[in-house]
Design goal:
By secondary structure, the chain is mostly beta strands. The chain is built from no helices and 12 strands. It has strands at 2-6, 12-19, 22-23, 25-30, 36-43, 46-47, 49-54, 60-67, 70-78, 84-91, 94-101, 107-108. Strands 1, 2, 3, 4, 5, 6, 7, 8, 9, 10, 11 and 12 form a 12-stranded antiparallel beta sheet that branches. Strand 9 (70-78) and strand 10 form a beta hairpin. The termini are far apart.
């Protein structure tokens, strides 16, 4: 069933669903200010699908494709101002191709 964890202040910290004692379904974590911190689908205790993280100001900072908890597919990262920082193609947890971007959105050597 649904499980929730709370900060000492009373603000929601985490919300997830358990099936037979194992996390299954959407899992969401929050900053104490109520802003979404991270969110992703969990299958048999492992993130599966797109997992995303945000800054405490609400800016998307990371989006990772996972298969059974292992990065697989396209992962992207953004700076705190929302500009794209990197795009990495993952296969079985290993980076197979990556592009990094400067603050102006131009590809860089990194």
């Amino acid at each position: 069933g649904l499980s929730e964890g709370w900060y000492a202040s009373g603000a929601l910290e985490v919300q997830e669903t358990f099936l037979r004692g194992v996390s299954n379904g959407e899992k969401s974590r929050y900053y104490e200010n109520g802003q979404l911190r991270s969110q992703g689908m969990v299958v048999d205790g492992e993130y599966d699908g797109v997992y995303q993280r945000w800054s405490d100001a609400g800016v998307l900072t990371e989006s990772v494709s996972l298969t059974n908890g292992v990065p697989h597919g396209v992962s992207k990262a953004w700076r705190s101002d929302g500009t794209l920082k990197s795009v990495v193609r993952m296969q079985g947890g290993e980076a197979v191709d990556s592009t990094f971007y400067d603050e102006d959105g131009q590809p860089t050597e990194e």
